Amino acid sequence: MYREKKISLVIPAYNESKLIRPTLEHVPDIIDKVYVVDDCSTDNMADVVRDVMKSDTRVELIQHEVNSGPGQGIITGYLASSNDGYDIAAVCGGDHQMPLEQMSHLLDPLIDGEADYTKGNRFMLGGNALEDMPKLRLFGNTIISMLTKIASGLYSLFDVVDGYTGITKRAIDLINWDKAWKGYGYPMDFLIRMSAYNLKVKDVPRRAIYLPGERQSQIKGVKYAVKVSPMLLKGFFWRLAVKYIIRDFHPLIFFYMMGLTLFPLGLLFGIYLVYCQFTGIGVTGPRAVLAALLIITGLQSILFAMLFDSQESK
Q: Which pLDDT score, from 0 to 100, does residue 218 have?
């Protein structure tokens, strides 16, 4: 136990036979239960976990019958933790990339009531991402973090792809996980859901472990950002509908509707006017003014909506 709370650790893993052992060997004593969720691995990872189980009775192996993605692995662990009555579930990867000795940093805000969900941030003071993270991954992380800020309304967060997290049993039981994103991109989807349910989310600084010669992360920078962008767009509109129309109402929804209509309309009209100018048709003053007004009004509406959204998330 840690500060009178029962703590579990969920480790979603796929083909981590090489790194799962050092991960499990570094689990701190404050953890009461460890759920290793094997997402239908094709290597001998399950045998490695069973071998560790002989010396560490806290470890339990859960095996998926089909490969379902890391998001589903975490959800499986969440539900097992809640059903077994643990107060908090922490999550780390099976690639020995997360400093488990810093686990208390994730747990303290949850126990103190400061947050319902905590996540690591390798860019905060005390992290090492700026110095050690490969530049391409750094660029992709920045892009996806900016998009997630808009999609979730949680503008104070960064390093949104970080999977070192903690969550309360209350939050696990509150969210409908059947609709959650199951594959890569799950951290951003989870943040959108936390925001839609008005749960408190907090970044905590953490350092990353980069092992020489090991490509621990399966995320490929810009390609990853492009792949999850449609999910973020869908999640953005779902969150607005749930948070500001169904569960409550806020005028920012009108600002978003106006901005997302007028801004692209103004851009398209402006492009048409440029075409007219270069093809000799010509452009009248009123038309140019109309295009400018559409763009400016649309952009201002979007910015006002984002401002109100960020204030609501606080």
A: 52
